[in-house]
Amino acid sequence: MQVPHDARVLVADGAKMLFFRNEGDGQYPDLKVLEATEQADAADQEIKSGPAGRTAGPNGRGSAMGEADFHEQSEQRFLADSADVLNRGALAGDYSDLIVVAPPRALGELRKHYHSEVESRLIQEVPKDLTGFAVDQIEQILVGIGRD
Question: In terms of DSSP bridges, do strands 54-56 and 31-38 run parallel, antiparallel, or are they unpaired?
Answer without folding.
Answer: unpaired
